[in-house]
Amino acid sequence: MLMGCLGFEVVYIDIIGDLLLGEAPTYDGLITTWLPQEDRHQWWVGRQLVLAALTAFVLAPLSSLRTMGHLGAINRVGLASLAGFAGVTIWLAVAAVTSGRAYALPLGPDLPALGGCTAQRITGVLAVVPILLTAASCHQSVHPLRAMLVPYSRALLDEVVATSLTLVTALFSVVCLSAYTAFGPNVRGNFLNNLSPAELAPLIGTTAANVVSLAIKAGYAVSLVGSAVLIMFPLRQSMLELLVPKAVSHGAKPVSMWLFLPCTYFLLAGSYVIAVYVPSIWDVISFVGSVGCTIVGFMIPAALLLKYMDKPTLSSRLQRFAAALVFLLGLGLFLNVFVGLFLSITQPQPNAQPSPPGAGGGEGLEEGLSLHAWVWRAAARAAGPGSDGSLREVLRWAGWGA
User: How many domains does the structure of the chain reveal?
Assistant: First the structure.
């Protein structure tokens, strides 16, 4: 629970940063789009400073609230922006079809883009499953907050969860199909970065592109601020349960501000640091999904069923068999992230190009490289002149043998 909530806090801050600043080389975010091109690379609109201001002056005050009741207006704006987002993607797809710019939907994944060998391609395909899994397991973060849900009933919560999952699935399907129809292989990891005036103008015209880009990005930024504040409640509660379980047990008095605020600000500071130095939302979500969501969504429920479903009946045996398969599936997805990490270290990465000067994200990160691949290459460079980045060279540099 703690890992999942922290991961999504980082993802929300990362995406807000993309919305505010945009991507290299254009930097056409909500802030930078109003600046001359030569000023968009200045330090005072750098990712570190902008995210620090966002965390300190927006997220910190809102996260200091004791209850979630004050966030209703932000959440309503968020829901409206999601509806507008889906509508815009459908509009773009229709415009692409009518103008003859539409891309044909692929029948399967682009395997060569996933890696140069079969093992890399298999792990790349399997890595998508935890990404999807995270969207279907976010509702589990509600459990630490049941005391705040008034009035609370199991039936009402089940209805809310079912409605949320249905809407998320529908939104995901609409955005995926429409986005690829409009942009094809040019769809970015954060699709919101595709909604720039320059990329929208060929489809809907310059004036409409400017208005739509500004409206969607602004609405989504407000929505993500609300989401970042909301996810702080279960994140903070999980941290307090880990550190001081008696202080947050059922029936205990409200946590003192001397404990509440430092815990809040510590978690925000940690999320900020990770968001600055791990700007790829793919890396964060894939790790959280592979490690956290597979354990919570697959392995723990299957293990509980295997332990307690021990009746000598055919139904019980079938359920235990199904639970064993689910456990093995979760274990495979869990191990896949580490296999992928090993392969990314030992095998060449496809399409790994250095980012342009002043590219957004962490300092020195190369576009197209995950964090662990960048760390490995940095270690190879540190190994000294003549190092080819091989496993032997880097282990020698680390002091693990000659």
Answer: 1
Does the pLDDT value for residue 307 go beyond 80? Answer: yes
Q: For residues 235 and 9, what is the distance between their CA atoms, to the nearest angstrom?
A: 9
Q: Are 175 and 153 in contact (CB under 8 A)?
A: no
Instruction: Convert 279-311 into a string of H (helix), E (strand) and C (coil).
Output: CCHHHHHHHHHHHHHHHHHHHHHHHHHHHHCCC
Residue 320 belongs to some domain of the structure: no
**Distance separating alpha carbons of residues 56 and 38, to the nearest angstrom:** 27
Yes or no: say if 272 and 13 are a contact pair by the CB < 8 Å rule. yes
Whether residue 115 lies inside any domain: the answer is: no
Q: What is the pLDDT of residues 218-275, one digit of tens each?
A: 988 988 998 899 889 888 988 888 888 887 776 677 788 888 999 999 999 999 999 9
378 neighbors 390 (Cβ within 8 angstroms): no
User: E strand or H helix at 258, and its extent?
Assistant: helix 257-277
Q: CA distances (Å), 310 to each of 307, 313, 369, in order? A: 7, 8, 48
Q: How far is CA 147 from CA 234, 248, 349, in A?
A: 11, 11, 48
Buried b (16+ CB within 10 A) or exposed e, 51-84: beebbeeebbebbeeeebeebeebbebbeebbee
Residue 275: domain span: 2-107+161-281
Q: Whole-prediction pTM value?
A: 0.74
Question: Are 273 and 250 contacting, i.e. CB atoms less than 8 angstroms apart?
Answer: no
* 328 assigned to some structural domain: no
Q: Is residue 177 part of a domain?
A: yes
Return left, alpha or beta for 302; rule: phi > 0 is left, psi -120 to 50 is alpha, else beta: alpha
Find, among 61, 87, 88, the residue nearest to 228 by Cα.
Answer: 61
| CA torsion through residues 347, 185, 189, 207, sign | positive
Q: How many other CB atoms sit within 10 Å of the CB of residue 197?
A: 18
Q: For residue range 83-132, list pLDDT tens digits in order.
A: 888 899 999 999 999 999 999 888 777 777 777 777 778 887 887 787 77
